[in-house]
Design goal:
It contains six helices and five strands; from the N terminus they run αββααβββααα. Helices cover 46% and strands 17% of the residues.
């Protein structure tokens, strides 16, 4: 299953279809903006095997110059994305696709601290089953009490994410 209706928060069990969908979308994106990306990453919970997630594919696109993100808007819109600017989330161009929402793009300049944190957190969960299981338990609990508030759901995961990032950065 892919797609989260506006105003809802729920999780579904991990599926290998998410990786396939990411790879398909990555190819579509590369075809449209081939000269700009340095790298295109699968991020978020759908990128971690066997981790329940909201059914949205999160994609991080690294670009050399932040202003290059503006040059990608019309090409990404031709793929069905909506551009939300740079003020929704810090230090990134933000795009969404679909209603229900199926994909999100976070476009960062290479070296951006938020991008590095996203990749570090994803990789930590991929390599640490105990942390992955703890995170999944927390996400399930939070999704039940925040069924219609995605901002509160995300906010209440922050302490866990920050604790993992501290372990990574200060072992």
């Amino acid at each position: 299953m892919l797609g989260l209706p506006r105003g809802e928060v729920f999780l579904v069990s991990w599926t290998s279809e998410w990786e396939k969908e990411f790879l398909l979308e990555k190819r579509r994106i590369q075809t449209k903006i081939e000269s700009y990306p340095v790298k295109i990453h699968h991020i978020g919970s759908t990128a971690v095997k066997y981790l329940s997630s909201k059914p949205i594919i999160d994609i991080a696109i690294e670009i050399e110059q932040f202003r290059d993100g503006e040059k990608c808007i019309s090409a990404l819109e031709s793929l069905g994305y909506t551009y939300h600017g740079t003020n929704i989330l810090p230090d990134r161009h933000y795009f969404t696709k679909g209603e229900p929402r199926t994909h999100q793009i976070h476009m960062y300049q290479t070296g951006n601290e938020h991008l590095i944190d996203q990749l570090d957190f994803r990789d930590y969960l991929r390599n640490n089953s105990q942390a992955k299981n703890e995170y999944e338990t927390l996400k399930i609990e939070l999704s039940k009490i925040n069924k219609t508030n995605k901002h509160k759901y995300a906010e209440e995961k922050t302490a866990f994410v920050q604790s993992i990032l501290r372990k990574i950065n200060h072992p």
